[in-house]
Amino acid sequence: MRKPPLSVATVILAGGQGTRLYPLTIHHSKPAVSYGGRYRLIDIPISNSINSQFRQIFVIAQYLPGELQHHISQTYHFDAFNPGSIDVLTPQENEKGEKQWFEGTADAVRKNLSILLKSPAEFFLILSGDQLYNIDFQKMVEFAENKDADLTIASIPIHEREVQRMGVLKTDDQHNITEFIEKPENLEQIKSFILNEKIAREINSPSQEGPFYLGSMGIYVFKRKALIDLLEQDRRPDFGFHLIDTAVKYKKTVAFLYKGYWEDIGTVSSYYHANLMLIDHTQGLNTYDEHNPIYTRPTYLPGPKIHSAKISKSIICEGSLIEADEITNSIIGLRSHIGKGTIIRDSVMMGNHFYMPPSHEGEPITHPFKIGEHCLIEKTIIDEHVQIGNHVRLTNKENREKFDGNGIFIRQGIIIVPSGTRLPDYFEL
User: Fold this and answer.
1) Among 203, 159, 150, which residue's Cα sits nearest to residue 177?
2) Which of 99, 211, 366, 383 is the most buried (most CB within 10 A)?
3) Domains of the chain in sequence order
4) Containing H/E element for 44?
């Protein structure tokens, strides 16, 4: 039997604009971006918190919050037998009528602290709205409680080539963090941070050629009083660059070692590969655990209708109509419609929120959201509610790394078709 839940409130930081994920964030906040053909990125931290029995959840949002609020309100429902709450907090006006915009992660928590402190929680679990993992946060909070730590940081072994995109920790043998540098500019700064043998054995660090370091996952457990003190003591706006450094210097700060899958969706490339990893059940996020499900909005759709397509290494979501010739190593999202003769390879199709209705009752659908007939689509991300005509070829034939034009984009060699785009017949890129 699982122990009774600890007194914990979860705070999910979901306010960022996600500029590195552009153009997927033209019409969506980053945590509201579709994932795996059926989920939203925000579903992962919320689901992990609920599965850990931490059901008082605050989501702090700022950029394009409307879609995120709607998804949460339509997805997560609690009652007297399954108590809980999810409150979405957005910038408020001050007494002068001025919007109090959040200037960073710590600033977002600081400006909502009076609301957060209405919770009686002893610990605050701080999460990001755009990371993928399967974590039992009870273990992390119990670790923090046993260590009597003011701040506990979830950490993961990272290779030398990854250190400049993450915060890097130096610990002693007892998991106490002695130094911290956010996104070090050069390896000279972290010469002494290389993983020591005891910690390396404890987490079974990768066998590939190193050296390896401990990277911060951006997941924190704060004691209530420590969070209040630190936000008051250090008025700077960011956790990673500012508050964590102060905590390491003046508070008891420890590292919780995590051994499983974790991915920060920071770029188009990381988003693309994290989606395609779902096809291989031995890697990526585990979405097949019935005891710890990833929750999302129920759809009540029928199974996909597949005609004569050759499908290999792919996920086809409910409500789809597949008339294609071939779908290989791809994710096809909810309510997708793919025409005859079309070939899709190494692509992510997000699907649609709804089927487009006929213009008049009883008439056929004249402009459906679909991929047309006899198209060739390779290494492409297709956002929601897109129309692609017949004989369209999206293959990045010039092998561009970056391209902006005609409402279509290339980032890191991956073609992106943003939400609402219409590509005419015989379009090529």
Assistant:
1) 150
2) 383
3) 8-277 (3.90.550.10), 305-423 (2.160.10.10)
4) helix 43-51
